[in-house]
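Changelog-adjacent note: as of this version, every example in the card shows the full chain rather than a window. The one below runs 240 residues end to end.
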Amino acid sequence: MGRLLDVRDLFAGYGPIDVLRGISIHLDAGENIGLFGPNGHGKTTLLQTISGLVRPTSGTITFNGADITTAQPPKIVEAGLVQSPQGNTMFGEMRVQETLELAAFSRRARGKRNDNLRRVFGLFPRLQERGNQRSKTLSGGERQMLSIGAALMCEPGLLMMDEPTLGLSPRLKEELSEAIGKIASDGVPLIVVEQDIEFLLRAADRLYLIEHGEAVQEIDRANAPDHAEIMELYFGKAGA
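Full-length structure tokens:
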């Protein structure tokens, strides 16, 4: 099994402050990983650094055998590494279908735009129903669907999601969880940031506990401790 993503000894942050402090994680082809841990400890910064939105100060990022440590975001997307941010970041004045079609801007995605649009509408029928609505009129759950749908329009070879179920009602959370499971079963590798440990244990093959900008614990689902032990580890670390 080949290594799809390899992050080694990565330092990154904002101004003089390092948020990531020598973090190392990896993703092998054919697996999914989950990231969890206290808020403000570097999970989102890690995704943004992998995506090229935050510049690392040291360390390396390799995707599909190529060094992308200093690559610009469009080149990273063109290579197939795509991030779905939290849904409140979409362009509010753009209509739903316009947003999805615009997302297929890369050369790798243009030729598959119509196929991927059908795929997105199959996963999220309500996006098709609201195709002419402006993004700002959507509910929180619908905006998250749009964020994931836009990422899928990029034809990802690896999809990173930042807390996709945050703040959703139980019904919408279950609906979105099922869609994410379908994306994974269709062969798209995933990195998912989530606070819902039960969701991560269903969706991911391995989990990383992120604390103070480092991956302090790696958990293999096949040999994972039970939920109570994971929560004790999480809150124990958070309170340390």
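Structural remarks: The CA atoms of residues 20 and 213 lie 4 Å apart.
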